[in-house]
């Protein structure tokens, strides 16, 4: 049975706290696992969450601040220690390639796994496989940063009443799906478009064109909300979003479920992030992320 869910490994910004680990997010998408922004302690958080190195197929780094990348060394070495039986691909800003290489070879170990580096240096697709296309968009932060968007291809949903009206049943349904036409009946006549699902991951950034482009029409949006709205000037100075800004983008983009994360340690009440997100007009599903939380991708409409 396919699983589509987000496993939250850490939710702190800049420094970990007693209750929040550095960043780390594992997206389970059918048979693949995509690890986003592994901060310090990600390997241990994976262990606590029941996730293994074998679950990882891609690693996506938005930028090379420590809270988003210091866990790379441990994760990469664990992939090799456990002899993961499939290739792993790493995406990251090309301008930070020297940081990636330093982290990849931070200490001595024996390489046993094919780790492919696929640096990002422009907006657009960075990987296309049968189940999805992974895209990147430039964000606005003091260092080069990219957000990521996963788009599943549209499919077709068969309509039983129309199939019955044309006398199509059993193996003939599969033939029609395969060939596009059966005895003069076209696939369009007995089916409708089944919209592919969309996921986006937006970390450290000010409001910029890349943020709504990544969020547009997402079933699940993971987005930083480092600051509360009263600290909007501070957020802009440091290249971050507020809870209200993140939720406003989600509302305008038609996001079905919003996950707020990457919280400054200055705030004691996580409930205030939810209150400000709702005040900004977002009415969809909402999660103020906690470490080791699981957030399912919403079911298809």
3D architecture notes:
- By secondary structure, the chain is an alpha/beta fold.
- It contains nine helices and 18 strands.
- Helix 2 links the parallel strand 4 and strand 5.
- Helix 8 packs across helix 9.
- The mean pLDDT is 96.
Q: Unreliable runs, pLDDT <50, ≥5 residues?
A: none
Summarize the amount of helix as a percent range. Answer: 10-25%
Strand composition percent: 25-35%
Largest β sheet strand count, sense and barrel closure: 7 strands, mixed
Q: Spell the H/E element sequence.
A: EEEHEHEHEEEEEHHEEEEHEHHEHEE
Please give the radius of gyration in angstroms: 21 Å
User: Quick one: how many beta strands?
Assistant: 18
Number of helices: 9
* Morphology call: globular
Distance between the termini: 19 Å
SS-based structural class? alpha/beta
Taking strands numbered 1, 2, ... along the chain, how are they ordered across the largest sheet?
6-5-4-3-2-1-18
> How confident overall, as mean pLDDT?
96
Outline the fold blueprint.
Elements: E1 4-10, E2 24-29, E3 32-36, H1 42-49, E4 58-60, H2 72-81, E5 88-91, H3 97-104, E6 115-117, E7 124-129, E8 132-138, E9 146-151, E10 155-158, H4 160-165, H5 171-179, E11 181-182, E12 185-186, E13 191-194, E14 198-202, H6 210-215, E15 220-224, H7 232-238, H8 243-253, E16 257-261, H9 271-279, E17 285-288, E18 294-296
Parallel strand pairs: 3-4, 4-5, 5-6, 14-15, 15-16, 16-17
Antiparallel strand pairs: 1-2, 1-18, 2-3, 7-8, 8-9, 9-14, 10-13, 11-12
Helix pairs in contact: 8-9
Task: List the defining traits of the structure above.
seven-stranded mixed beta sheet, 301 residues, alpha/beta
